[in-house]
Amino acid sequence: MFEDPDEDLVGPVAAVVPLVSNTSPVTVSGESSVSSGVSVGQADWRAPPELGGAFSIEGSLSVDARLDTRFRAHATIGAETSGQGFTAPVLEEAFVDYTLGDTIVFRAGRQSLSWGQGRLFNPADLVEDVDESLSIKMFAPVFGNGLTLIGWANAANVANATRPTWREFVYAAQYSGNLGPLGWGLAARVRRGAEAIWAEREASGFLRSVVAGADVYTELLWNSGEWEPLFGLYKELSDPRVRASLEATSRQVGAAVKVSVGSVHPGLRWVQYLADHSGEAVVGVEWEVDNLTKVTWGVPLVYGGTTSAAYREATDDRGGQQRWAIGVNVTLSARF
Amino acid sequence: MRLTVLFLVAILGVGQAWGIEGIDLLKAIDAQVTFGTDFSAQYRITQDRPGEGVSRQTIALFRRDREDKFTIVILDPPVDQGKGYLKVGNNLWFYDPEDRRFVLTSAKDRFQNSNARNSDFTRSSLASDYRIVSTRQEKLGKFDTQVLDLEATGDGVTFPKTRIWVTADNLLRKKEDRSLSGQLLRVTAIPQYQQLGDRWVPVRVVIADQLRGREVEGVFRSETTTLEMSHPSNKPVSDLVFTQGYLEKVSR
Lengths: 336, 252
Prior knowledge:
The complex is a heterodimer. Chain A is an all-beta fold. Chain A has one helix at about 310-315, and strands at about 25-40, 50-70, 70-80, 85, 90-100, 105-110, 135-140, 145-155, 170-180, 180-190, 200-210, 215-225, 225-235, 240-250, 250-260, 265-275, 280-290, 295-305, 325-335. Chain B is an alpha+beta fold. In chain B, strand 2 and strand 3 (about 70-75) form a beta hairpin. At the A-B interface, strand 6, strand 7 and strand 11 of A face strand 1, strand 6, strand 11, strand 12 and strand 13 of B.
């Protein structure tokens, strides 16, 4: 390679072609998956072990149109099996983007969004119900940082779905950036409230940084007078790839480790509720057989009384409580 | 006693002089490829896994070295289209349009499972990350080079030790990255650069992984990743490009 290399190039560079023209004719894409599995487990220590099985098919179809660098329309519908049939197709996303002056991006419609820093727990996700609503979002760089403003109205939370009032809308804002090695952000969510529609006031702030190669973060959520802190640590190692998380809030602590060795990914996840000392530990292995096929083996174990928070959360595929289980699942999935 | 003191002063003096000279050299190498303006280019990334075939990706890279920011948008293949990376200071986010969420990732991690690392796309920071422990002259093909053995001064870098071959114009031509124990991890070759304004950008970068590969017909062949640059530009880029909002905008 160095015996007879090409000469370094000097002189004028050819005219630049826009790298990300963000225009394309209408594109259709989608994904589908078929999953089947068996498991054996116990609903309670005194109950006999039960054999169970599961089968599901999921699919989604997306249409995307970007006929102008400033404009984009996108819609995704999805459906999945339910009992012996399929659910009615659900409009998962349907929105329009408009970019003003190559600086401010507006998005209106049904959209997915997630805030908050947590990986195991995310109490500060102030926009978790946006994907159930129609919303308008604006994003703009402000003083080198990012400002997001969003407003939405959930049909379930308005007195008259055809004529919601401004008091029934939820408004949220997030401003985040970096100060040297420190990442920071502030967010808030408010709803003025009306008769039969309660008022909401939430705010959060976070700081994060990289210490000794680990991502260290803290976030504080304020919700109508109550405080909930989050502390977390995330570390990645390469060769083999190891991803480890450790998080704690005022209500829960948890840890997760996932190792990737070739196509095999063993992992462990543990969560404990501080109030009643109940919790759940899950050990599992995921094997990517090929680019279409994945086999998953897992053992969840729940500890704590039958009235504990962990036990109430632990449900099997049929919605019943589950103390422990051993299961294996095969999934075929593809994107087009 | 006096002789010992003089000897020690001489050694310290030489060491200090070399330290200053070494830093200046590393700064000069960094300066050759660091842009005071914005930089953008398209890269074709070819991943060759012996026995498994060749995969290709096309990405758009936007860099703002003065603010230590970059944005990467994956343009091709369609299954990865819309995924992106945003680095601002020490924070590197990966955006997966499937989840519509930004996940903090590591600069040390492999870029899209290739032999390149996320840190390969950041601005050069040899002067702040390494110190020179030895140097010599060596012929590298048709290039006359100075070979520098470097050790990391902190643990924030991807490779604790590295050896670089630098031509007289302060352009890095070859790099051998090593572990703390000295094990050779990968070899990077940059045979050609392109001038852009008063700075230079590699036209072609070949990375050979010394740990990953396969025996083919009795010979160990390394996995290699080749990065081929095209459409370079030092024109200003909108501030929006270096934000999470931009990745959401251009994603699927």
